[in-house]
Amino acid sequence: MTRAPVYHHPDAPLSPAALLSIRRGAALPASADPKKARGCDVDRTGRVAGSRSGKTLFARLEAAPFFLVAPSPRRGSAISNSNSHATSVGEIDWEQWTPVDVGTLCFIRVEGSLLLIRKKRGLGAGKIVAPGGRLEAGESILECVLREVKEEVGVDATDPQARGDLRFQFRDGYSIRVHVFACEGFTGNVCESEEALPLWTPIEAIPYEEMWADDALWLPELLAGRCFTGYYVFDGDRMLDHDTKILG
After folding, report:
1. Per the CATH hierarchy, to which homologous superfamily does domain 89-246 belong?
2. Residues 6 or more apart whose Cβ sits within 8 Å of residue 13
3. 39 pLDDT more than 90
4. Sign of the C-alpha dihedral computed for residues 96, 99, 102 and 108 taken in this order
5. pLDDT reported for residue 79
6. Alpha carbons 89 and 221: distance in angstroms, whole number
7. Are the C-beta atoms of 184 and 158 separated by less than 8 Å?
8. Residues of the chain with CATH 3.90.79.10
């Protein structure tokens, strides 16, 4: 499966309109050679390089240079077991790894508190997480995060900024790539939904013991305004191995 990088000049932030135009599964430009341009993945500097009209362009978000639209099979696709044997990050060829799902998380911060949720159903039911969910067919990453926040807690997130890019491989064969966003405002009234119970949580009292184990590795970085990427192997809700990188 060909991955579709987001092409953008390195010194100019992507606008919400630009993000909205980038769809899941979008085709690589005809002139782009992913083998020569490394257009299929993010390099170690956190940038995605591609070729268009004989010029090299780089993909970078204002706050998250690693940001990439990574197509995945449609929701409900059969779980791949090719990496189900892995117990460590190093056992997986992440360059060839393709997630079953792509998802988003959005941490809304207002006056020293985070809007978290107690998840009622689905992956991680019972845990405390941020609003978010899986990418739907034909949807951009930004559309996904805005929709999921609205569905789960009833508000419209204000100008969410991409902060993290996380890859999770589970021992049962399931895998997901999660794009993490942060924002500092919203419009509307927070309310409970069938999927989530909203929880305003003081930043100094984040209940990491009730969250996924990886959250404690990167959430402090998000709160400090830094960007990050991470690779994780889980057996159920038990983290077996991790590799988290701070991008600054």
Report:
1. Nucleoside Triphosphate Pyrophosphohydrolase (3.90.79.10)
2. 61, 62, 63
3. no
4. negative
5. 54
6. 21
7. yes
8. 89-246
Token pair for 217: 């590795």
Residue carrying the six token digits 């780089």: 58
- What pLDDT is stored for residue 81 in this prediction? 59
Neighbours of 114 (CB within 10 A): 20
pLDDT per residue over 151-171, tens digit each? 999 999 999 999 999 999 999
How far apart are alpha carbons 63 and 102 in whole angstroms?
Answer: 20
CB 155 within 8 A of CB 183: no
Are 73 and 174 in contact by the 8 Å Cβ rule? The answer is no
Q: What is the pLDDT of residues 45-56, one digit of tens each?
A: 333 333 222 222
pTM of the model: 0.72
Q: Give me the residues paired with residue 72 across strands.
A: none
Please give the full DSSP string across the chain, using - where no structure is assigned: ---BPPP--TTSPPPHHHHHT--TTPPPPTT--HHHHTTTS--TTS-EEEEETTEEEEE--SS-TT--B---PPTTPPPP-TTTT--SGGGS-TTT---SEEEEEEEEEETTEEEEEEE-SSTTTTSEE-SEEEPPTT--HHHHHHHHHHHHHS-EESS-EEEEEEEEEETTS-EEEEEEEEES-EES-----SSEEEEEEEGGG--GGGS-TTHHHHHHHHHTT--EEEEEEEETTEEEEEEEEE--
Task: Retrieve residue 174's tokens.
Answer: 């399931």
Place of tokens 């940001």: 67
